Give the backbone structure.
Amino acid sequence: MTTKTPRSLGILHLERGLAPDARPPKPLSGSILNPATFDFSVIVETVAGAWVENVVRGDPALEPAYVAAARRLVERGAVALSSTCGFSVRHQAAVAASVHVPVAMSSLLLLPTLLRQLPSRAKIAVLTYDSTCLGEDLLCVDDAIHRARIVIGGIEGGKYWHDELKRPPPPTDAAAIETDVAACVARLRAAHPEIAVLLFECAGFPVVAAAIRRISHLPVYDITNLCRLTMASVV
C-alpha cells in the first residue's frame, strides 16, 4: 500500500547515478531539495532515464517517464509539482495534462509575468546552466517584442557544468556556482545595461541567490519562488 504524505510539493528529480545503497549528499541551504528551504514538506520521485545531458539537450522520449513519475507523486499525496531542472519545461504541458494538481516545472514560466512588471525598456537576464540549449521556444513568451527584452547567459564549460555531467556528480560546489553566475551576470550587464531583473533557469542556482542579490543589487527570481507561490495557492 502506498504511504501518503499530505500537503506536499512533489519534485521530479533527475537521475544521479548513485549506487543503490549510497546515501545522497545533503542538499545545500536554499536548494529545492533541502527541507529547510520551504515551510511545507517535499517529496521526490526520480524520472527514469532523465539525466542532465538528455534533459538539457531535449529528448522527447523522456515524456512518458516524466508523466509516470508525476502520477506517482500525486498518488503519494503531492498537491503541486515542480522539477529539479528548468529544461523540464519541455514536458510542462504533458505533465499538467496528466494530473489534477498545479504543475510548475520551471522558473521560465515566470517570464511573462516578470516582463509585465517592468518598464518597457527594461530587460530580464535569464541565467541558465547551458545557453546553447536554451532556445526561444523554451521562454514561454510568444510576443517577439517581449522576447527581445530577454537576454540569456550560461555557465557552460564551468566547474558546476562539468560536475553535473558526472555519474554520480560530486557534492554541489556553491562557491563555484557563485563564481560562474556572478561572472555571467557581469558580462550580460556590460552588454545590456537595461537589465533590471535576474531569473535563474537552473534549479541548482537558488543556493547562491542571496549572494547574487548582494553582488548585483538586482531582484533575483528562481524555481523556489515559483514553488512557494504555487503551494501558497493550494495549502
Q: What stands out?
A: Residues 8-106+227-232 form a domain with the Rossmann fold fold (CATH 3.40.50.1860). The mean pLDDT is 95. The chain has two domains: 8-106+227-232, 107-222.
